[in-house]
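Hi again,

Forgot to attach this to my earlier email, sorry! This is the prediction with uridine-diphosphate-N-acetylglucosamine bound. I've pasted everything inline since the attachment limit keeps bouncing my files.
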Amino acid sequence: MNKLVLVTGGTGYIGSHTVVELMNEGFDVVIIDNLSNSEKSVLNGIAEITGRRAYFEQFDICDKERLDNFFKVYKKLDAIIHFAAYKAVGESVEKPLMYYQNNLVSLMNLLNGMIEYDVPYIVFSSSCTVYGEPDELPVTEQAPIKLANSPYGNTKQISEEIIKDIISVNPNLKAIALRYFNPIGAHPSALIGELPIGVPNNLVPFITQTAIGIREELKVFGDDYNTSDGSAIRDYINVVDLAKAHVVSVKRMLEDKCKSNFEFFNLGTGKGSSVLEIVNAFEKAAGEKLKYKIVGRRAGDVESVYADTKFANEELGWKAEISLEETLLSAWNWEKYIQNKK
Ligand code: UD1
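Structure tokens for the complex follow:
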């Protein structure tokens, strides 16, 4: 019988790509998503790519009673991958209570369910934001956790702490936290991808929306950083590569290969790219000219952050493989697909 994995937030951006990779590897998947930031049609994209349908339950995992009922119905879950959370940095500054409430209560409900209904493994969707402005580059997993610069970032730090404390007194449980750098791109089929609601905050969706004519021009936030061209540096990782790391993590736990009951890994490419390098790479990959202008720095942005990938490469046995050009082209193909569908 196939192993069954619960994916919370499975119709979201990273969640949907992970569901595809799980199903490609022979797992059965049940998704819980309240569709607050995604669409049900994503399930059709997943089915078209994989030739199978994921089970789908629409509700909010902050609703403990509803979640408990779910655990009673789906008696034999082998693992959980937990994506469902709010993720907009700026919004979290304006609505901190909403972020703490949603991102922490959902996690606690899930952990409670794991204990009560004997689900042993969880992969947690964390972020490089836990490192803040790092003292040393590339950033290793041993880099100190810095004071969070937003309630969103704080929820990721607190979540990791909550998991650590609960794992330490429940020896049957194991967790892996995956600290993502900057996920971008879409599935090569262009059947699933990122669906930002309103004006995108993140760089690549803003670029593709500008190239297709929805936005007038890209604003490059700052050209006075201490970097080669003055714009800020990030580690942009293909979402399919990222999704695969979740499957590897689930298998690692199922095959009892973990070195400790709570592990964490950086997921990046190990290569930093500046905003202007991304603009150039996009123009080259898509064959489109991009209108942009330099403006002041965005509050809260760090100058430079990219991953040391050695630990993930050697210990997890996972490596990002898809090139930046191919990734930007996939983002562009996805943008064209969704605009055509409208
Ligand atoms: C942020 C969070 C990260 C979170 C991610 C998802 C921090 C430090 N990072 O990443 O934890 O997981 O969002 O929402 O809080 N840029 C422009 N113009 C734009 C948009 C972005 O120049 O219109 C620049 C930014 O200044 C930055 C880079 O592009 O230098 C990447 O920005 P973005 O895609 O928003 O991601 P982060 O801020 O790195």
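The chain has a mean pLDDT of 97. The two ends are 40 Å apart (CA to CA).

That should be everything now.

G.
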